Amino acid sequence: MKLENKSALTRGAEFGVVMGILFLMLFFSTMYFMDNALLSMLPTILIIAIPVLLYVFLRKAYLADNCETTYPTLVVTGISTFLCGGIILATVALFYITFFDPDLILNWITTTAETYRNIDNPTAQNLYAQLNEIVEKQLIPQPGEFVFQLIWLAITFGIILSTVASLLISLFIRKKK
Fold first, then answer.
1. CA 106/CA 135 separation, integer angstroms
2. Which DSSP letter does residue 142 get?
3. 3-state SS assignment for residue 7
């Protein structure tokens, strides 16, 4: 992927494809690998990989511009990376939930509620009661609502992580003379 002479949004879109694939891996691993002790570590590893990958992308863009990219441009690149990745995630998740696993959200809520029910802690019991009430009152989000929340989640974390990563890059990486 050649980075020279590209706008922040173009770079963000290119980086967003890779980030979207990472988001999809996280989505499916979170939904399906929690029953296997070894594979249940995969979501944690992927969550850690997200800010690391963002830093690598932003650093690569910064160095491609000969360390002359401004802080706001780096932030915009990071946010657009998360936006594009979130759109990829939302599109695939909506298609998957709608056509292949319509009960995915209900099953996820039920599984999470059962996990909290088995924890001897007042906070966990409160969460169990809330999740159980969601199921009983049939307040389960529709697939469209769910994926819209995924996009907002990606954008929110994109803003936070891009701000921090861009600050670190612009403060600590200097042009070699």
1. 7
2. P
3. coil
